[in-house]
User: Fold this.
Amino acid sequence: MGAGQRRTLVVVETRELRYFVAVAEESHVGRAAERLGMAQPPLSRAIAALERRLGAALFTRTPQGMVLTGPGETLLREGRVALAAIEAAERRTRRTAASATRASVVLTAKAGASSEIMAKLLDAYAAEPDAVDVEVVLSPPGHQALMLRDGRADVAILHRPFDDTSGFDVDELVVEDQVLILPAGHPASTRESITFDEARTLPDLPLPRWPHLDGTYPDGPGPELRDLTQVLQLVRLGRTALVLPESARANLRDGLAVVPVLDAPRVTTVIAWPPHSTSVGVAGLVRAASRL
Amino acid sequence: MGAGQRRTLVVVETRELRYFVAVAEESHVGRAAERLGMAQPPLSRAIAALERRLGAALFTRTPQGMVLTGPGETLLREGRVALAAIEAAERRTRRTAASATRASVVLTAKAGASSEIMAKLLDAYAAEPDAVDVEVVLSPPGHQALMLRDGRADVAILHRPFDDTSGFDVDELVVEDQVLILPAGHPASTRESITFDEARTLPDLPLPRWPHLDGTYPDGPGPELRDLTQVLQLVRLGRTALVLPESARANLRDGLAVVPVLDAPRVTTVIAWPPHSTSVGVAGLVRAASRL
DNA sequence: GGAGGCCGATACCGCGCAGGTATGGGTGCA
DNA sequence: TGCACCCATACCTGCGCGGTATCGGCCTCC
Assistant:
């Protein structure tokens, strides 16, 4: 008896997990099979086998397709985490192998945000004697945490409460209030402060729509938010208004007014990294960040 | 183009990961094969295939066996996390299926510690109107976090800095100083306080040895710590001394003296649970804990 | 009410690959 | 130098994954 007598048997292969997630996301075996580049029958069988092995019905079959059961919901949520973990393991292994030649670290941040912080951080870190190359990857809002989870990035600049930092080690960098940015001449632009509800219901100034994680946009009146400077231009034109962390003030030009939003959640900018990271680059960046 | 065009291909199957971990832990293909219940050649081939697919040498072959390379270390660390995640996904799926009949929640804690807290917590939770059954699993020191990671438990009572809480959501319950517990008549028993170094080097009072995670014990002079009351008996007999959180005072009987240890790390008792848990039982326990 | 369309499930088949046995090649040690 | 102990290679076999063809249930729409 060494150290491995207990064995509740990990029987699920990653291939099966991928199949399951695909079917769950499509709610449709045929479409899922197409997405996976395979035929429908083997996929049906694989799902059935998985259900048999887990001893749980993962889907209820309806004439319209497959709908998740309770256990299915659980497996979808946990299975995505597990798949991301495997993906991360692969990627980090490959990167460790590659970095044998030249160490480097991948930092991800939201495009066009926190540029102040980023510049200071990168400068501070670059000044360290044993600094490695930092590859900065700007990605669409909300994708930073995902990239950290699946190993595409080693460190990330995240913003609570918008980003989900659970499962990461974090250091807080800045805490900010949020402000409403609106056209200079607007009636509300002279107010001392405003509530979020008021800001959201300003006549003729619908807030822009932020994209979902998959790149689609919710329905609504406001413009689709793609590029921050473009949207600021729209604000100047009196077409929309914007709620942003107050550090955004630094980048504003004329034609815009700023009003503090009293009840908006405070935004905390954090630097986040996967627990147990052994990268010297990550450690150095975090150290540099904590000295900012 | 829906939401799944990028695909850096998750190619590693859990079977391969299990194989790799086994070989890495044994540093020996033959022994690993035995442990896995298979022959040596297929295992050799599987490892080679994995290395080829990852494009990285995971081991260097020596006449004495297999030793991990840098990328191998990475894959071992990350792979263990990934395997635990898959195991957790399976177990929680099975449990969700089972709990369709009667909801329950598994709470794990260190045997014989925090009993005060535990009792209060369970009482407080049981008093709630929609409380579900709580299955309490006492496990050896250090195993609580593992059980939480691989899904054997839904909530855990952990102790920082001893337990690794990274990756979990936590609520702090108590912060305590630590005290030295020694025989009543001992010369040091009348001191106002003591340092950890002094406590560790008391003549004729070697501190007990705590088991590793695999159940083995480090070499050294002190007794092997198995059962707390047994060790306390040894303390009474003047054979050992013990550093414990001060809440342990409540359980002490005669024949023992207590001296505060000045520079020992403060112990924080926390309740921890996996992020994104959807269990109503977990939510209830956490709520109850925060009201203690 | 029956025909057709759209589901997923089943039947059947072939091939690839995981896993087995036997053996080779390299290294350290008596 | 021979042996013991590693891991790798060669070769074979059987299982299971994935393919095509088809079935059975349900809804829709003439």
Observations:
- Residues 160 and 268 of chain B are 5 Å apart (CA to CA).
- Chain B touches chain A through 55 residues (CB under 8 Å).
- The domain at 103-167+272-290 of chain B is CATH 3.40.190.10 (D-Maltodextrin-Binding Protein; domain 2).
- The mean pLDDT of chain B is 88.
